[in-house]
């Protein structure tokens, strides 16, 4: 379950701080890939959220392409937003991280509609 370890909580806090303190247009694809790599490391070993890991891997691949497909990128960000919201509102959701995950969902949704 997301939020069940300190690395996940730390990544959530770092991600929220990054997006709240930076104009998303100023973030490079390389920064995005590094952020995704951090999330993949934090989520490693958590079989309950394979869907998020699959989406992150797909997003990583798109960001690493020479000319990322912007429509596909928007679709992936929106899908990740939906998944993050579902996890935050799920029956097994608990702890203070759920509010942060809902905030992240909103940020991803905004990025998906404005990219």
DSSP helical segment count: 5
Strand content: under 5%
Overall mean pLDDT score? 83
> What would the principal axes of the Cα set say about the shape?
globular
Listing every helix as H and every strand as E from the N terminus to the C terminus, the arrangement reads HHHHH
Question: Termini distance?
Answer: 29 Å
How many domains is the backbone divided into?
1
Radius of gyration: 13 Å
Main sheet properties: none
Query: Pairing-aware structural class of the strands and helices?
Result: mainly alpha
Helix content: over 70%
Instruction: State the total count of DSSP E strands.
Output: 0
Q: What are the segments in which pLDDT stays under 50 over at least 5 consecutive residues?
A: none
Could you describe the 3D structure shown?
The structure is a single chain. The chain is mainly α and 115 residues long. It has one domain (6-114). Helices cover 73% and strands 0% of the residues. It has helices at residues 6-21, 29-43, 50-64, 70-89, 97-114. It is globular. The N and C termini lie far apart (29 Å). The mean pLDDT is 83.
Which short descriptors sum up this protein?
73% helix; 0% strand; 5 helices; single chain; mainly alpha; 115 residues
Would you spell out the secondary-structure blueprint of this structure?
Elements: H1 6-21, H2 29-43, H3 50-64, H4 70-89, H5 97-114
Summarize the structure.
By secondary structure, this protein is mostly helical. The protein has five helices and no strands.
């Amino acid at each position: 379950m997301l939020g069940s370890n300190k690395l996940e909580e730390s990544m959530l806090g770092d991600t929220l701080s990054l997006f709240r303190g930076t104009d998303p247009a100023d973030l490079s694809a390389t920064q995005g890939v590094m952020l995704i790599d951090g999330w993949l490391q934090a989520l490693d070993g958590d079989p309950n959220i394979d869907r998020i890991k699959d989406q992150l891997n797909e997003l990583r691949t798109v960001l690493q392409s020479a000319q990322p497909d912007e429509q596909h990128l928007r679709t992936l960000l929106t899908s990740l937003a939906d998944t993050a919201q579902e996890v935050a509102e799920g029956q097994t959701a608990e702890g203070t991280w759920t509010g942060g995950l809902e905030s992240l969902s909103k940020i991803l949704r905004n990025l998906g509609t404005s990219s």
